[in-house]
Amino acid sequence: MTDARTARPRHCVAVIGGATAGAEVAGRLAELDAEVVVFEMNPRPYGKIEDGLPRWHKALRRKEYETISGKLTRAGVHFVPNTKVGRDVGFEELVQDWGFSAVVLACGAWSDRALPVEGADDYLGRGLVYQNPFIIWFNHAGEAAYDGPRFQPEDGVLVVGGGLASIDVVKVLMVETARAALAERGIEVPMLELEVKGIPKVLKAHGLRFEDLGLEGCTLAYRRRVEDMPLVEAPEGATPERMEKVRGGRRKLIDKAMEKYRFKMEPLAMPDGLLVEDDRLVGIRFRRTRIEDGRVIPTDETFELRGSYVISSIGSIPEPLPGIDMKGELFAFTDWDFGRLEGRPTVFSVGNVVTGKGNIVASRKHAAAVSHDAIEKFLGLDESGHEGEETLADAAAEAAREQADRVADAVGRQPPLDPASVAKILERVHLRQNAVGYGGDYADWIAQVTPPDLE
Ligand SMILES: Cc1cc2nc3c(=O)[nH]c(=O)nc-3n(C[C@H](O)[C@H](O)[C@H](O)COP(=O)(O)OP(=O)(O)OC[C@H]3O[C@@H](n4cnc5c(N)ncnc54)[C@H](O)[C@@H]3O)c2cc1C
């Protein structure tokens, strides 16, 4: 196949993953006149925006969906949905056989970091739950066609975590258990109302106090102090005074979140053993820690916390991809700025797959742009709901753009392909698109694969 675009030498780049980072780099490369093929494992390309951000971030999610779609519909971008690299197309094959000038990994971090207690994973589904499937379930629970694992928010769940995502988990638990307790009294309150107004305020409007619900609440255990929680990052080179301010800000955020959603905190608690009864995980034995010069020091003291079940929310890591060496839980990058791999000069990486963080808010470089107020809105601690939290997305977008620019620059230094080679790759791409039923019109496809009851 040849047309005006493919009639001259140009770059032809494969991008693995079509969400925030993948769409950003695809859009940037297309602007530079490359042909870009985006392989996305899911029907919809919204990644953690759809499956990591809880569904109460309605406006933020819509805005990000539009941004991603805008970039994936640029001239020169070829979308290949329902195609998992490592399953439907081999990574090795993509790098060696297809003939792309470069391959960019933008496949995010979809595995949960393992709860660091020996034997913990033996209790998966028997008292142990991980954060990623839990939030995916929460976001899709109302869809008739949802066929993934289902979870029951219960009172008294023990959550191990500490980052922004673990606050999302405790909020889901508290909002949903309060909603169920109200429903038992014949009071139906939408999830969003509880999330935006907060539990005590909604209860008050019905003449109730939290204590009246008979709920114990869930507990968030964290191995450092509350003021160390990575909710607001200190900017690079922060003075001791600035650091103290950041820590004070974190304390205030957590106090406010605990008041509004009524969860409990257990700081300075490091998982140390499993509490098992009748072959079920019923809690965790913790070791008390202290913090010395920023380091976590385990002490001799241990204590137990029980829970109706345990959710581990201690971070996401890349899913292993056959053909890519791992170093511990991460890909064995030789250069972390560009996400380069040993012996693979045409491979680059962007987004969560390299940062290993669930969000760019945690990026130190962009911390200054992320105000305390914006985080407060993001966490739902502001009276106005989440209005204005989009400024966070702007900081995240800027970080993604910088990374995409850098990689696009490096890709540009690879030799371009002759028109026949580009045409050959695109022919193969069209075959795959046909195989998955993608007719080439992105908007049509999205309309076709979006569940009618998706929130
Ligand atoms: C203000 C803000 C705050 C946020 N906070 C959080 C947060 O707290 N927690 C959180 O989880 N997210 C959060 N996010 C979402 C965040 O944007 C993304 O996690 C981040 O931008 C990373 O995007 P990514 O494209 O690198 O990864 P992802 O969004 O994970 O996208 C990776 C894409 O690759 C696809 N993919 C994976 N493997 C393969 C494969 N083998 N073959 C083909 N396709 C594949 C996936 O389906 C997915 O579409 C936040 C976003 C914003 C804007």
Write the layout of secondary structure elements.
Blueprint (H helix, E strand, L loop, with lengths): L11 E5 L3 H12 L3 E5 L7 H5 L6 H15 L4 E4 L10 H6 L5 E4 L5 E2 L15 E3 H10 L17 E3 L3 H21 L6 H7 L1 H7 L13 E3 L18 H22 L2 E3 L2 E9 L2 E13 L2 E12 L3 E3 L3 E2 L8 E2 L2 E2 L1 E3 L4 E2 L5 E3 L2 H4 L16 H7 L11 H23 L6 H17 L6 H8 L6
Parallel strand pairs: 1-2, 1-4, 2-3, 4-19, 6-13, 7-8, 7-13, 8-9
Antiparallel strand pairs: 5-14, 10-11, 11-12, 15-16, 17-18
Low-confidence stretches: 358-364
Count of domain modules: 2
Shape: globular
Distance between the termini: 40 Å
Number of strands: 19
Biggest beta sheet summary: 5 strands, parallel
**Strand fraction:** 15-25%
Please name the fourth-level CATH homologous superfamily of the largest domain: NAD(P)-binding Rossmann-like Domain
* CATH domain class name of the largest domain: Alpha Beta
CATH topology name of the largest domain? Rossmann fold
SS content category: alpha/beta
Name the CATH architecture of the largest domain: 3-Layer(aba) Sandwich
Question: Widest sheet: strand order?
Answer: 3-2-1-4-19
Question: Summarize this, please?
Answer:
This protein is α/β, with parallel strands linked by helices and 455 residues long. The protein has 14 helices and 19 strands.
Could you describe the 3D structure shown?
The protein has 455 residues and is an alpha/beta fold. It has two domains: 221 residues, Rossmann fold (3-Layer(aba) Sandwich), CATH 3.40.50; 196 residues, FAD/NAD(P)-binding domain (3-Layer(bba) Sandwich). It is built from 14 helices and 19 strands. The strands form six sheets. The protein has a five-stranded parallel sheet with strand order 3-2-1-4-19, sandwiched between helices. Strand 15 and strand 16 form a beta hairpin. Helix 7 crosses helix 8. The longest helix has 23 residues. It starts with 11 loop residues before the first strand and ends in a 6-residue tail after the last helix. About 2% of the residues have low confidence.
